[in-house]
């Protein structure tokens, strides 16, 4: 039984205890205020369904797991959205709740996980990537932005301070091989093996006792997750930065170059942001 969660995200219930959440917003899987209700419905379901134990996030769009925030709608479309249960804007709220949800969450990364896509992966409990096709990126600093979905709080805990700063300040793509070496993802597997590996792991977890899974995750969270206040400060910094003159200029340049319309700009975003200051 499938449930359509809005137009861009859907839940596929493989079994009552094992779900897949599929991002399907071609051509580039861009996330924006229009996507918020879709993901909100998913997070609400994960928090309240008594049977689900494991969920896998994946993409139906070739080449793109999930990419950056939508810069076409006016900023007010985002800032005027009501806060979520954590007291934060819906995007950091939902990512924070996913990290703490009473399910095991896995991101299956094939294609580009940039900006929000990287942040969704970081909010998941585990990340598995295609060795040949995965590219992760927090590119925002290259456009005079501060990332808003929590990577400053999560990446240093996950991969260490120096590597976190390299990812954030360098604003470069991190391919599957390097992502595994840094610890950005759990493993990068040959693309032909990725689906079977994730499916096998998810099915195995789905056979385990839910209470044991939840209590174990809670204890791991104590040792590893940042407090909500750190995530909230990141979102506030993002909103402040996106309204700045320099960010507006650079985003304007990128839009003129074809951001959100031209596949080359999206696929080689790290290259193109490197040309903005030249």
Present the secondary structure layout.
Blueprint (H helix, E strand, L loop, with lengths): L1 E4 L3 E7 L2 E6 L12 H13 L5 E6 L4 E3 L9 H4 L10 H11 L3 E6 L2 E3 L1 H8 L2 E5 L4 E3 L13 H9 L1 H10 L3 E2 H7 L4 E3 L1 H16 L3 H15 L3 H15 L2 H13 L5 H5 L1 H5 L5
Parallel strand pairs: 3-4, 4-6, 5-7, 6-8, 7-9, 8-11
Antiparallel strand pairs: 1-2, 2-3, 9-10
Helix pairs in contact: 1-3, 5-6
Describe the structure.
With 278 residues, the chain is of the alpha/beta class. It has a single domain, classed as 2-enoyl-CoA Hydratase, Chain A, domain 1 (Alpha-Beta Complex). Helix content is 47%, strand content 17%. The radius of gyration is 18 Å and the shape is globular. The model is unreliable at 1-5 (pLDDT under 50).
Comma- or semicolon-separated keywords:
13 helices; 2-enoyl-CoA Hydratase, Chain A, domain 1; 47% helix; 278 residues; disordered N terminus; alpha/beta; 17% strand
Q: Which band does the percent of strand residues land in?
A: 15-25%
**CATH hierarchy: architecture:** Alpha-Beta Complex
**What is the approximate shape?**
globular
| Rg, Å, rounded | 18 Å
User: How many β strands by DSSP?
Assistant: 11
Could you name the CATH homologous superfamily?
2-enoyl-CoA Hydratase, Chain A, domain 1
List unreliable stretches of 5+ residues: 1-5
Provide the spatial order of strands within the biggest beta sheet: 1-2-3-4-6-8-11
For the record, the count of structural domains works out to 1
Major sheet characteristics: 7 strands, mixed
**Number of DSSP helices?**
13
Helix content: 40-55%
Helix/strand order: EEEHEEHHEEHEEHHEHEHHHHHH
CATH class: Alpha Beta
The CATH topology is 2-enoyl-CoA Hydratase, Chain A, domain 1
Structural class determined from secondary elements: alpha/beta
Arithmetic mean of pLDDT: 96
- C-alpha termini separation: 52 Å
């Amino acid at each position: 039984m499938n449930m359509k969660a809005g137009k861009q995200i859907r839940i596929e219930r493989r079994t009552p205890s094992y779900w897949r959440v599929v991002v399907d917003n071609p051509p580039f899987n861009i996330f924006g205020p229009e996507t918020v209700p879709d993901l909100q419905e998913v997070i609400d379901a994960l928090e309240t369904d008594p049977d689900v134990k494991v969920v896998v996030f994946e993409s139906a769009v070739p080449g793109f797991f999930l990419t950056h925030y939508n810069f076409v709608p006016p900023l007010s479309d985002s800032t005027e959205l009501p806060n979520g249960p954590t007291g934060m804007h819906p995007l950091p709220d939902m990512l924070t709740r996913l990290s703490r949800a009473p399910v095991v969450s896995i991101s299956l990364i094939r294609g580009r996980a940039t900006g929000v896509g990287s942040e969704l992966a970081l909010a998941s409990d585990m990340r598995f990537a295609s060795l040949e096709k995965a590219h992760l990126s927090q590119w925002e600093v290259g456009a005079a932005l501060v990332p808003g979905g929590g990577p400053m709080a999560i990446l240093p805990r996950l991969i260490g301070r120096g590597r976190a700063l390299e990812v954030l300040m360098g604003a470069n793509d991190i391919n599957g091989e390097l992502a595994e070496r840094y610890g950005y993802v759990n493993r990068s597997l040959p693309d032909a093996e990725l689906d079977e590996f994730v499916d096998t792991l998810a099915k195995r977890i789905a056979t385990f006792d839910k209470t044991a899974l939840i209590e174990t995750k809670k204890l791991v969270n104590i040792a590893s997750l940042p407090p909500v206040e750190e995530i909230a400060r990141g979102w506030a910094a993002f909103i402040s930065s996106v309204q700045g003159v320099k960010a507006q200029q650079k985003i304007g340049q990128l839009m003129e170059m074809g951001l959100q319309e031209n596949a080359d700009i999206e696929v080689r975003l790290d290259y193109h942001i490197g040309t903005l200051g030249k």
